[in-house]
Automatic annotation (TrEMBL):
Pfam families: Ribosomal_L28. GO terms for molecular function: structural constituent of ribosome. Belongs to the bacterial ribosomal protein bL28 family. Keywords: Ribonucleoprotein, Ribosomal protein. It comes from the Bacteria. SUPFAM superfamilies: L28p-like. It comes from Chondromyces apiculatus DSM 436. This is Large ribosomal subunit protein bL28. The gene is rpmB. PANTHER family: 39S RIBOSOMAL PROTEIN L28, MITOCHONDRIAL, LARGE RIBOSOMAL SUBUNIT PROTEIN BL28M.
């Protein structure tokens, strides 16, 4: 499981590593200003039947949907993460 320290405390998924993206607001006059698109990160306590225990992770809402579909253990293996 990923550990959190000061330099890694940004909003980032523990499994996929997704984090905020730099984007641009574009006005009607085509003036562009930079802005951040944040990832929808949720802290979840998830049950892993293969390990017979709960694991607390910061995951995106898209991660949660996929975990519901295929399971946390399989999803973590797919992304090369050990629980």
């Amino acid at each position: 499981m990923a550990r959190h320290n000061e330099e890694d405390s940004m909003a980032k998924s523990d499994i996929t590593g997704k984090r905020k993206l730099l984007a641009q607001n574009v006005s009607h006059s085509n003036i562009k200003t930079k802005r951040w698109q944040n990832v929808n990160i949720q802290t979840r306590r998830l049950w892993v039947p293969e390990l017979n225990r709960f694991v607390t992770l910061r995951v995106t809402t898209r991660d949660i949907r996929t975990i519901d579909k295929i399971g946390l253990f399989a999803y973590a293996q797919r992304h090369g993460v050990t629980l």
